[in-house]
Every structure is written in C-alpha cells, then in structure tokens.
TrEMBL record, chain A:
Enzyme Commission code: 7.6.2.11
Short name of any one Pfam family annotated for the protein: TOBE_2
Family, similarity comment: Belongs to the ABC transporter superfamily. Spermidine/putrescine importer (TC 3.A.1.11.1) family.
Matches recorded under SUPFAM superfamilies: MOP-like, P-loop containing nucleoside triphosphate hydrolases
Stated name of the protein: Spermidine/putrescine import ATP-binding protein PotA
Keyword set, alphabetical order: ATP-binding, Cell membrane, Membrane, Nucleotide-binding, Translocase, Transport
Taxonomic superkingdom: Bacteria
Leader peptide range in chain numbering: none
Subunit text: The complex is composed of two ATP-binding proteins (PotA), two transmembrane proteins (PotB and PotC) and a solute-binding protein (PotD).
Role this protein plays: Part of the ABC transporter complex PotABCD involved in spermidine/putrescine import. Responsible for energy coupling to the transport system.
Catalyzed reaction equations: ATP + H2O + polyamine-[polyamine-binding protein]Side 1 = ADP + phosphate + polyamineSide 2 + [polyamine-binding protein]Side 1
UniProt xrefs under NCBIfam families: potA
Automatic annotation (TrEMBL), chain B:
Gene Ontology biological process terms in this record: transmembrane transport
Signal peptide: none
Protein name per UniProt: ABC transporter permease
PANTHER family documented for this protein: INNER MEMBRANE ABC TRANSPORTER PERMEASE PROTEIN YDCU-RELATED, INNER MEMBRANE ABC TRANSPORTER PERMEASE PROTEIN YDCU-RELATED-RELATED
Assigned keywords, A-Z: Cell membrane, Membrane, Transmembrane, Transmembrane helix, Transport
Gene Ontology, cellular component aspect: plasma membrane
Subcellular compartments: Cell membrane
InterPro entries documented for this protein: MetI-like, MetI-like_sf
TM regions (residue ranges): 21-44, 89-112, 119-139, 172-190, 218-244, 272-291
Family per similarity comment: Belongs to the binding-protein-dependent transport system permease family. CysTW subfamily.
The ABC transmembrane type-1 domain, residue ranges: 85-291
Record membrane topology: Multi-pass membrane protein
Pfam family, one: BPD_transp_1
Length: 357, 304
C-alpha cells in the first residue's frame, strides 16, 4: 500500500463528518454524530469518554468492523471506509486480547505475517524480535491460555505490531489488568510507541490513563467529540461543563457574570476577567484552592476526608453542598478544621473558569 | 497418623460407590448383560429352525465370517461378508462426508443469525424427528421411484429426459442416510460454533486474513470438537442402519444392519448374526479409541 504524500506532515488518519447509526435510519440510535478528527503521524492519540460515548464504535469504524452511515475515513490520504478490515494497514489490540486459543504464542504472532505471505525465515525472525520487544522472549512455545493477563496483553500487542501497521488501535487494552500492572503497561505502551514510531489510537474511559500517556486527547460524549487537545489543554481549559466534569475533579457553582467578576447565588463575589454576562457556571478545581484566613470565599465544613497524601474538605458554599477543597498533607497532620466550622477559601483568579452552559 | 485419614477416604469411597450404583446397575442390566448373552449366542451351534442349541459350543460363526465350507468340507476364503462390511463403511463414509459438506455451512449460517431467528431455525432442524423414520423412508421411496416427484420435476425442468432410476441403488441409500442423519451433524457443530468467541474471527480479519483463511485457520479448528462429534454421530448409526438400505436399497444393497437382520430372520443363523454384531461393535470401538486418543478432553481445539 503506497503512501503518496510525505508522512511527516500529513495526517495519519483524517475523519470527516463520520456518522454511525444503529437500527432504522432516521430513528435509530446515533452511536456517532458527524465526527471530524485529524490524527497526526507518530502521535499517541486517545479517545476518552464514558461507556456508550461512541469511542469504541469510532475505533471499530477505523478498523473496518463496522460500516459508517455517512462520512469518510482517510489513512494517509487514501479513503478507507469501503475496504474490508483485512485490506487496511491498521491493526487492533482487542479489549479481550482475542488471542487464538488453539495456537501457541509464536503461532499467534506469526498469523498476520503468514497472511501477508512472508517467508518462513522472515516470520521466525520477526516473531523472535517481537517477543523481545514486549520482553517475553521465552514464551513462544506456550499456548496463549497458559499466560497471565499481563503477558497475554503483551502478546496481543506483539501480534498486532508484528505486521508493522501504519496505525495501531488499542481498545480499552489495559482495563482488564490490575492497578500495578496497568501502571507498568502505561509506561510500556508509551515506550513501544516511541520505539516503533507507529501512530497509536487508544480508547479508554480512564481519564488518568489518558492524561498520562497521550500526546493529544479527544473527549467524547453521546457520539460527539467535545474537545480535542493536549492533556494540559484539556485539563486546564475545558470547553464546557461535561469535559470539566469528566476530566479530573471539579466544583461547579451557579453564578451570574457581571462587569468585573461573578456573583454567586448568595451574593458572594469572585473577581475574574472576562466579558461574559448573564447566567454562567463557574468551575473550580479542588486542588487549586486552599483554606486560608484571608480567602475571599466563605463556606462551612460539611465533611473531612483523609486520603493519605491529601485531605479533602467538603464545604457548603452559597447554599450548595459538596464544594471540595484538596489540601496536601505536607506536614503530615490535619489542619484542625472540623465539621461545622466556618472557613474561608482562597481562590486565585487563574483557578476560576467561567463556562456558559 | 494416617489411620483416621484412611478411614475417611474409605468412607468417601463407599459413598461414591453408593451414589454411582444406579448408573452402574443400569449399565450392567441394559448393556453388559445383553452383550454377554450375545457373545454366548455367537459361540453356540445354530438351531435347525432358528434359535441356538444350548450347551453345544462352536466357533463356526466366526469362521463363517471369513470362510465358507465347500462340498468336501474344506474351508474356502469367502469375501462376501467382508464386501458387505466394506460397502457399509464406504456408504457411511460418503454419508458422513455429505452430511459434513451440507451440515457445516448450515450450522455456520445458524450460528450467525440473531437469537430469535436462530431459535426458529433450530426448531425447524428438529422437525423431521416428529415423524417416524419408517414413514419418512416411505416418503423418500415415493420421491425417488421411477416417475416419482424427483424424476418428474427434473424432466419438467428439462434437466433430464428419461427416468433416473434412482430408487433401489446405492445413491438412494446415501440420499436416505444423508437425510436421516443430517441433524446429528448440524446440531453438534452448531453447538461448538455458537459458543465460539467471534471476536477471534474479527482478530483474524484484522491481521489480514480474508474470509477463506479465517474459516480455515480459526473457525474450523475451533469447531473441530463439534465436527468430530457430529461425524461420529452420523458415521456409527449409518454403519448399522437397517431401514434405509432395506427400503431405499430394495434389499439389493445389503449393509451390515440388513445382514444381521437376515441371520436372525430368514437365514435362521443366530450365532452368525451375533458374531457379525460383535464384528461391527469391535470396529466401532476401534474408531472410538482412535478418537479418544486423538482428541483428549482438555485438548478441545483439536490442534495436533
């Protein structure tokens, strides 16, 4: 499969106006609603969203397991949407790994290479190289079901990467692993991506995983892409309440924007720059604010939760409960605020995001 | 130190024996006992008008299987019975192959339908069981006979211009056996396909396998336990079938089943009938032995 244009600058995958509808046209369920995306070459790109947001459907459309209702998918400029999955230079790491149970590990990895008609010696070399790449050089002769979950995960990766795909698709690939293994694999995936130079498209519902690994993230909800950006952009400047709510913890306060700030429902005022007017939502991250005697926001302590590294204070602010303030336990001790205390919260103006929604 | 454990073990063994007693008893009464009687009959002298002469032992029946006695009492090698065995095996192999050829795609089609449609289709597969096999065999006689529906249909369509003369031939027997045992091929294959993880097929497509390769490398190997079970369920009863060759083969195409029936019927040679049954049984057991060695439990994929 030839690539006409230079791969350095061209989009690896370019998705235009892609829609996917299950059931009868017009009244079926819209799994994807006119999604457009550009994914760059050699990028670690993550599709992030809650279950049912359409991220897996999008991945399956790129792989070719589903047919879109409308729109185009281009891979390095070439339209893909009418090609069957076995003609697409993309490979998938499945959520369930989908290793062939009747074959050995080596036979699993060799499968794609055999389908491409490589010679026996080439296949043998590649299999050995792939097993070394995923740091499991000695398991080639074992059957897939004799491996642990983490090992199966690595073999699934090796099997997909053996074909040297232009784009590797990973469907919730780490969700079946335990916490410790998951952290290791996150680093491992990142290493593999930079070692191989292959574009990775990773699907997950875990925002921490997405923030840790991705070059860029697309946040999806209800079949739409809400925001595309680097992890920092997504976290620091969420475009709306849904994104802010899904990525990290956020406090939301109903407010009215006035000339030089916002007025909360009980008349408290927070100064923030901006030219918005009328009803708005104020988003404040719990770790950006602190309890301080000279704070500008007044609240009442409802609950104190000790979580080891931090203590989280749940406050009632402006008549609404659940406003969280996260304080690092630097001195290894509680600050001494108790339930029922009136406290002041210091809110730097940079910590205030005014959202219209 | 080990004594209390020994007692406990012995007690457990006793309980196991007690629990398995009904099954053991059933096997003994309905399986081993009749087989024993059959064996005794097979080594007795045949009675003049059927039955056997009790107390007069002879291996004549087993000798009869290979040799016949010439006028001057010398034994001459006789291949008649062996030919019937050979024909039975050949017809059963063709039947099994035919069932596999039709049954596998059918089962695959069934497994790929939505659950509601699947249940309806499965139900349809089992519909023939509602009618007695004898009635269905007579129905096939009407279909296959000269000037029957098959002949007339083909002539009406202009495909043939004379009668095919299908009835009372090996072909008619194969058609009848195929029809009778097809569900026994479809159902086990369907069962193994139905519980298959179809994401494996997606994975095969993803790795560059086209439909043919996915079928050959993934679907067929994973359906192998069903294919083997289906083949056994078709092959063994075909081998001993009696009604189909009798009716559709017109008694001209003898199979083992007819031969055995003949010995207990008009030939009045019970010992030979019993000996033939044992010969059949030993062939079947041999086949099962090969199967159990080749496909050990736990080796479900059946991969060499």
């Amino acid at each position: 499969m030839g690539t006409s244009s230079s791969e350095g600058t061209c989009s690896a995958i370019s998705i235009e106006q892609l829609s996917m509808e299950f059931g009868d046209p017009g009244q079926g369920v819209k799994a994807l609603d006119t999604v457009s995306l550009e994914i760059q070459s050699n990028e670690f790109f993550t599709l992030l969203g809650p279950s049912g947001c359409g991220k897996t459907t999008l991945l399956r459309l790129i792989a070719g397991f589903e047919q879109p209702s409308a729109g185009t998918i281009r891979l390095y400029g070439e339209p893909m949407q009418d090609l069957p999955p076995f003609r697409r230079p993309v490979n998938t790491v499945f959520q369930s790994y989908a290793l062939f149970p009747h074959m050995t590990v080596a036979q699993n990895i060799a499968f794609g290479l055999e389908m491409r008609g490589l010679s026996k010696s080439e296949i043998g070399e590649t299999v050995t190289r792939m097993l070394e790449l995923v740091k499991l050089p000695d398991v080639g002769g074992r059957r897939a079901d004799q491996l642990s979950g983490g090992q199966q995960q690595r073999i699934a990766l090796a099997r997909a990467l053996a074909n040297r795909p232009k784009v590797l698709l990973l469907d919730e690939s780490l969700s079946a692993l335990d916490q410790k293994l998951r952290k290791d694999m996150q680093i491992e995936l990142k290493r593999l991506q930079s070692d191989t130079g292959i574009t990775f498209i990773f699907v997950t519902h875990d925002q921490e995983e997405a923030l840790t690994m991705s070059d860029r993230i697309a946040v999806m909800s209800k079949g739409r892409v809400l925001q595309v950006g680097t992890p920092t952009e997504i976290y620091e400047a969420p475009v709306n309440r849904t994104v802010a709510d899904f990525i990290g913890e956020t406090n939301f306060l109903a407010a009215e924007a006035v000339a030089d700030g916002v007025l909360l429902s009980d008349g408290q005022r927070l100064s923030v720059a901006g030219d918005r007017r009328g009803a708005v939502t104020v988003a404040i991250r719990p770790e950006r604010v602190s309890l301080a005697a000279d704070g500008q926001l007044l609240g009442k302590v409802e609950n104190v939760v000790y979580v080891g590294t931090d203590t989280v204070y749940h406050l009632n602010v402006a008549g609404e409960g659940g406003f969280r303030v996260r304080q690092q336990n630097r001195d290894g001790a509680l600050s001494g605020y108790r339930v029922g205390d009136s406290v002041r919260v210091h809110v730097p103006s940079a910590a205030i995001k005014v959202l219209v929604e | 130190m080990t004594t209390p454990r020994l007692i406990a073990e012995r007690r457990q063994l006793g309980r196991r024996l007690l629990l398995s007693a009904p099954a053991m008893l059933t096997l003994l009464v309905f399986m081993l006992l009749p087989l024993g009687i059959m064996f005794v009959v097979s080594i007795l002298q045949s009675g003049d008008y059927g039955g056997v002469k009790w107390g007069e032992y002879s291996f004549e029946a087993y000798r009869n299987f290979f040799y016949e006695r010439d006028l001057d009492d010398t034994l001459v090698f006789n291949t008649d019975y062996l030919e019937i065995f050979q024909r039975s095996f050949w017809l059963s192999i063709l039947t099994t192959a035919g069932c596999l050829l039709i049954g596998f795609p059918t089962a695959l089609y069934l497994a790929l339908q939505t659950e509601r449609k699947r249940n309806l289709l499965l139900f349809l597969v089992t519909v023939p069981f509602w009618t007695n096999l004898l009635v269905r065999a007579y129905a096939w006689m009407l279909l296959l006979r000269n000037g029957g529906l098959v002949d007339e249909g083909l002539q009406g369509l202009g495909i043939t211009d004379t009668g095919l003369g299908l009835l009372y031939t090996n072909n008619a027997v194969i058609i009848g056996l195929l029809y009778t045992y097809l569900p026994f091929m479809v159902l086990p294959i369907y069962t193994s396909l139905e519980k298959m993880d179809w994401r494996l097929v997606e994975a095969a497509f993803d790795l560059g396998a086209n439909r043919f390769h996915a079928l050959k490398r993934i679907i067929v190997p994973l359906a192998m336990p069903g294919i083997v079970a289906g083949s056994i369920l078709v092959f063994i009863p075909s081998l001993g079938n009696y009604i189909i060759p009798e009716l559709l083969g017109g008694g001209k195409t003898l199979m083992i089943g007819n031969l055995i029936q003949l010995q207990f019927g008009s030939s009045h040679n019970w010992p030979l009938g019993a000996a033939l049954s044992f010969a059949l049984l030993s062939f079947v057991l041999l086949a099962m032995l090969v199967y159990s060695v080749r496909f050990k439990p736990g080796n479900a994929g059946g991969h060499p």
